[in-house]
Amino acid sequence: PEIGGLSDLKYLNLEYCQISSFPDEIGNLAKLRYLYGANGMLQSLPETIGNMSSVEVIRLELNDISNLPAGIGNCTALKHLQLNANEIPAVPSEIGNLLNMETLILGGNNISELPDEMFDLTNLKVLNFAANDLDTIPALIGQLTNLENFQFFGNNFTYIPSEIGNCIYLNYINGYDNKIDSLPLSLLDLPMVETLFLAYNSLTFDDIEPLVSIWGFEYWLQDSIGQETDTTVMLDSAFYMEVQTGGEFNKYQWKKDGEVLEGEDNHYLNLIDITYADSGSYNCEITNTLATGLTLQSRQVKLHVKKYTAVDESKINKLFTVSVSPNPVRNSFMVDLSKPGAGEYEISIINSSGMVLKSYSGINFPAKIDISDLSSGIYLIQIKDVGNGGGDRCMEKIVKW
């Protein structure tokens, strides 16, 4: 409490001190200009901190502070506030009163929302709210037209608002390790950028290609694309897989069990007349002749091969055959049958695991079959003559795009 009597004190350094809180009387230091207390054991800040009307610099990083009192908004002379690596859960709206603020560092806390008032601090040159629990960069960022250094890495952001293009003095942007999957073209409006660090996000080449001219643009190690798949297909069937990603200058290379598949350099891989040797893990590497700083990976497709389980091939009557067109098919196909005499037929759509997904009876040929509700993959079309006890039947493979 005696510290409250130091009314003329201008500089206070309590770094590495083993104190858990400041006494309320610290608010009596009306002439204090510099407060340092980093690397300590501070757990809370008193509301009276707002009485320090002359303080210009507060550095209390690397503590265990769990609050930022609303009274901080009364420290209107404050230019530098550094509270990174604490346990602060929220920022009070009163922070918008600190119109002289030039540096605001709040990284490494537990903040999940930013007050709109923060973006009234139009004199800010450095803004850091990295490594928190934030999911949106407000469009209000465009009001910070004097911003030079912007760090927001280690959050859950999925995009950067286009309004960032108003921050024409930005020279350092660090947004790595988020979930960003699109970029605004307004980044091209920032003539002073020297670093644009966006590694460890979810960007693809169609996001990157328009911005490769930006100086210092680092975009390596993006998240894999597509869905991881573990599936079983039938012997002698077919299996189709493709990579769906944008980019005008993409190059593709498929691999099986980590080894290059020679000649398989399209965005798709179509396996036909599958054998047991086709079992394995497949993925595609995507590079780009314009954006050369990244190799995208598709997620693994793990393929198992087995014999038919839905029907016993030895019982399939070869006296009639089925024709299907088009094949591959997107939404619907025509099926026709060649067999002497008339019969009562049933059509079944069977997946690669042998499960009957659709069944039609009383079919007249040629017949139109709609499979628009099925996902892409390989299916079997089975036709049985149920009027003959089901003994006469035939099968045909079909690829659904």
For the terminal residues, how far apart are their CA atoms?
76 Å
CATH topology name of the largest domain? Leucine-rich repeat, LRR (right-handed beta-alpha superhelix)
Proportion of β residues?
25-35%
Structural class: mainly beta
The CATH architecture of the largest domain comes to: Alpha-Beta Horseshoe
Morphology: elongated
C-alpha Rg (nearest Å):
32 Å
Let me know the largest β-sheet. Answer: 10 strands, parallel
Q: SSE string, helix = H, strand = E?
A: EEEEEEEEEHEEEEEEEEEEEEEEEE
CATH class of the largest domain: Alpha Beta
**Total DSSP helices:** 1
User: What's the mean pLDDT score?
Assistant: 91
Corresponding CATH superfamily of the largest domain: Ribonuclease Inhibitor
Order of strands across the widest beta sheet?
Answer: 1-2-3-4-5-6-7-8-9-10
Extended strand count: 25
**Could you say how many structural domains there are in total?**
3
Helix amount, in percent?
under 10%
